[in-house]
Amino acid sequence: MARTFAYCRVSTSDQTTDNQLNEIRGAGFSVEPKRIVTETISGSVAAMERPGFSKLIDRLEEGDVLIVTKLDRLGRNAMDVRATVERLAASGVRVHCLALGGVDLTSAAGKMTMGVIAAVSEFERDLLIERTQAGLHRAKAQGRSLGRPSALSEAQQAEALKLRTEGVSLGVIAKRFDVSRAAIQRLEKKKRDY
Asked: Which of 9, 87, 118, 123 has its CA 20 to 30 A from that of 97?
């Protein structure tokens, strides 16, 4: 016989999961108190990295049903939600999301819904990348310096590069200028790229 579990998450301690539980009961799901998992953790944390959700995953068995009120309860973004639902589906667990009309996300209709959500998410991510690249190109064209400021002055950079061409080791140069070896390596790479 299938067991029904509920996962309710809030982001801060001044919030409560009561509304989520009431919504689940109002949708006609009867969940035993021992099968209700509540958690206070930021939605920016991936589902599988949440202590409460990880314990829930260990309890779920094939044929069980997991109820959530909204998709964002399951993950930080569409990709995380999709991975979580796919993992549950592979274990034979059905996932119902009340905000999507109670659709089982592991069913054909649910998979289609997840596909649309993933496509929209990918589109939004691509738009963000395009806007970021356009902004970087515009800043560069305006002569703005991009990236973190150099730890070395221009004179120190020239001296460090001169020492490298003379065969002085990275460690010695880094120690002399009180920077990391990686800072000297970045300086060399920057010179090669120009």
From this structure: 123
